[in-house]
Specification:
- Helices cover 12% and strands 25% of the residues.
- By secondary structure, it is of the alpha+beta class.
- The chain has a domain of 35 residues: Ribbon (Complement Module, domain 1), CATH 2.10.70.10.
- It has a 3-stranded antiparallel β-sheet, with no helix packed on it.
- The protein is extended.
Length: 69
């Protein structure tokens, strides 16, 4: 019996593949991959509005991302 299979690393997907759901099994669409640097224009944070709430996505000095409400 085969062991558990590793999930494919989303970063290894080409942008062309991740931008379309054509040709995927059962019509499942793949998540859209956006670089954090493409989201921020000035500084190290963005604010996201979702269902009337504001969330803050920021990059720390240790180069990690933190999402806070």
């Amino acid at each position: 019996m085969n062991g558990p299979q590793k999930a494919e690393n989303p970063q290894s997907l080409s942008l062309e593949t991740s931008a379309t759901s054509a040709g995927t099994p059962c019509g499942v669409s793949l998540p859209k991959i956006i670089s954090f640097e493409d989201l921020i224009v000035c500084g190290d944070e963005i604010w996201i509005q979702f269902k009337g709430q504001i969330y803050r996505l920021r990059r720390t000095k240790q180069d990690k991302l933190i999402l806070t409400k």
